[in-house]
Amino acid sequence: MALFVYTSLCYLALPFGMVLHLLFIWRRPEFRAGFFQRYGWLPKKQHHPVLIHAASVGELNAIAPLINAIISHLKLPVLVTTTSVTGQARCQQLFAANDRVSWAFLPFDLGLANKLMLWRVKPRAVLLVETELWPNLIASCARKKIPTILVNGRLSERSAKGYARWPWLVAPMLQKITALLVQDQATAQRFLSLGAASNTVSVLGSLKYDLVMPDSYLDVTTMVAGGLCFVCGSTRSGEEASLLQAWSQLPARIEGTLVLVPRHPQRFEEVADLCQQSGLPWLRYTQVSKPSNAQIPSFIDSQQHSRRVLLVDAMGVLFDFYRRADVVFVGGSLADKGGHNPLEPATLGKPVLMGPNCFNFTQVCDQLEQVQALKVTTSAHLLKDMTALLIDPLLRESMGAAGAQLVNQQKGALARNLLFIEAVFEQALKE
What pTM was estimated for this model as a whole? Predict the structure, then answer.
């Protein structure tokens, strides 16, 4: 009954949703690709693949080692679905050379769209990453006896309170999931309190600690040469203004480049306006990335100011700037977005600075903070905390080393998840 009500509401909203969808893609051309995939018409490129849904870039980066392990160890093809355009672009970047991996957009959670997708793709299993819980998709898989597994599951206290408002829908949905493989005991307890069956919940640790950084990378040294490099990754609305203000007010002896990497490409122009208004010398990545660009020397050797700003208006190069960074600020944390993944810079041995809104990575941030690899700041204390890190090379070195050591100690969730998934697949074949 609960699912019927939910599905009926979805269909009642469908005409209005389609109009809004068309208006949205009219205003945002980058979202036009995969229009029919959003309604279930996915490509049939693989034979009975494992369907893995990772909403966006962060989830995809976390799950990439598991995707590679499923291909190499279990010898199974994989179809990766995403929700965001940036996630799709990252998927292509990671797996374009691997013919065992295909990708598409996940359909909206409509019964007919899910049925069409499952009929076309015929997945042998569906893996949902972190908090991607869709009632109709899970119910459709259960009816077809397709194993559905939540991998690298996480559930913040805030999200759990939201789900708790809909117990008539959430509890039956959780009970249809084959297994919930979660990151920590707190997440496990929250799923149990929402109605998940105790025999389906397993604490296997976070796959994010098994992050594999790509071997080959872009050399960005010439773009940030001279002085310190302060990289602000995955920044969100409101954060760039605070960072630019603090950067301009640092003590005169601190010289270098502030690198701003917005989370979403549609904000590049907005952030460019902020850079222009700051009064600091600045350039776009797409300007300085051209080998023959004559602006690079004048940008690096600028006499206007000892500190410069580089706006990275391109996707897929964040890790390359993390490698060059002396200090990393991880965005989405001054803004009330829950923060993005601090393990990416910590893996590279970089000291990490974040705002107070880290609820997407509560356990990870707590662990990094406990070993003094991460400093939590606020808008009011941003200038002070930036200064403390940028003037003290020994502090930066000790924080970076502590973070890298923690990541190495916490590795192993990948192997545990793979063993569990393999066992589920074998059981499904026997039934």
Answer: 0.75
